[in-house]
Design a protein that fits this description.
5 helices; alpha/beta; nine-stranded mixed beta sheet; Spore Coat Polysaccharide Biosynthesis Protein SpsA, Chain A
Length: 221
């Protein structure tokens, strides 16, 4: 199985830290955040990774190279000076990802989730990992109903930025800038979006304060 790491964003909320360095290269506990993901993917048995690039993407390419340091083969999906948002970025990378389901990890989360747990499910367009709502996102994103992701019901949970996706989710899309959420809503309406709740270590590295907290005491396992 292949995987994609989302690394094209500008990281506005992390400025000024991201003025000179892309968000995925910010240090977390002694190494760039994106390297934690590469190590997790290698442990999960992934051998091929696609990384999308935009803001200061040349720094990411220079730091990671071909991925051989982690036993991986890295390919890069170039988006130009303006990121294509999550949906557009994934769609642009589909020729590199191929026709099979693939893992997707946001480059700005830190987690202990075992990526090897995600396996394709017949008839599903995607499988999302959800987490208990963090303080900065108390309303959550989705609910769960017998393993299916829904927009109604309680409790609601936050999308962890981790999932298993199929190219089918992007049927009818065109190259360009567009969000992922409407595609997930479409899959929910079709009853083809599964999910699970993960209550282990997870953090969204979305602000200097949250980054500082991560570089403090270790998360509990």
């Amino acid at each position: 199985m292949k995987a994609m790491l989302l690394a094209a964003g500008r990281g506005e909320r992390l400025r000024p830290l991201t003025d000179k360095h892309p968000k995925p290269l910010l240090p977390v506990r002694g190494k760039p955040l994106i390297i934690w993901h590469l190590e997790a993917l290698a442990r999960a048995g992934v051998s091929e990774v696609v990384i999308n690039l935009s803001w200061l993407g040349e720094q990411i390419r220079a730091r990671l190279g071909t991925g051989s340091d982690w036993g991986l083969q890295i390919q890069y999906s170039e988006e130009g000076p303006e990121p294509l948002e999550t949906g557009g970025g994934i769609f642009r990378a589909l020729p590199l990802l191929g026709p099979a389901p693939f893992l997707l990890v946001n480059g700005d989360v830190f987690t202990g989730y075992d990526l090897g747990r995600l396996v394709p499910e017949p008839g599903m367009q995607a499988h999302l990992v959800l987490v208990p709502n963090p303080p900065h996102h108390p309303e959550g994103d989705f609910a769960l109903d017998q393993g299916l992701v829904t927009l109604k019901g309680k409790p609601r949970y936050t999308y962890a930025g981790i999932g298993l996706y199929t190219p089918k989710l992007f049927a009818g899309c065109r190259d360009g800038k567009f969000p992922l959420l409407p595609l997930l809503h479409r899959a929910i309406a079709a009853g083809q979006l599964r999910g699970e709740l993960y209550s282990g270590p997870w953090a969204d590295v979305g602000s200097p304060e949250r980054l500082a907290m991560l570089n403090g005491p270790a998360l509990e396992d």
